[in-house]
Write the structure tokens for this entry.
Amino acid sequence: MRILVLDNYEEISKKAALMIASQVMLKPNSVLGLATGDTPLGMYKELITLYNKKEVNFNEVRTFNLDEYYGIDRENPQSYYNYMINNLFNSINVNRKNINVPDGMAMDVEAVCRCYENKIKEVGGIDMQVLGIGGNGHIGFNEPDVNFEAQTHLVNLNAQTIEANSRFFKSIKDVPIKAISMGIKTIMNSKKIILLANGIGKAEAIERAIKGKISPEIPASILQLHNDVTIILDKQAASLL
Ligand code: GLP
């Protein structure tokens, strides 16, 4: 596990964007695992800047998002699909047919999850997976008490996550209580992982994930067992290490 502690959010965003761009330069048809939330927004902006400067070309890239709320459709402004379109895909030349986000309106959830896993396998697995981290140590939507063996599946969001994500909704009652998420096994099968965290609110989760015991209580702690993880932190997020 490599740990990079940088001065501020801008620096971590730039560093992460450069890592993704390098991955795509080395392997133009890379399979990228992408995350949502506030944390990667700066990184996506930097990637768009690199694309506009013609430093990186996404036309062969395939993407798989980590998760999607269950019960809201793609066009919903709160969907993670919509987030990706607005914050990245609309501004780069990724081919829409190469974008994959779990279908939050799936009727047959199990079939959709199986299909997602199969598709990831068919393209040769995820080359580089981007992660944020929840204040409770979740990655994707793999909440505490996680099953480390799970693949893409339907999850129940816990109260802390619903509360944290209510900032994006009109009221806490509008926050979906379930989501479809890649499982820990899906994430651990990625060839490379980069995890970004900034701000004091993430310091405890980062400390427990990196220095604590590997435990389902802190889903991100499993990353200690992956052989190619880079954790990119600002000073606040690293303050308890
Ligand atoms: C969300 C997402 C995660 C994300 C996390 C942190 O619930 N499912 O993928 O990493 O919460 O979000 P933020 O970056 O906004 O703090």
Summary: The chain has a mean pLDDT of 97. The longest helix spans residues 9-26.
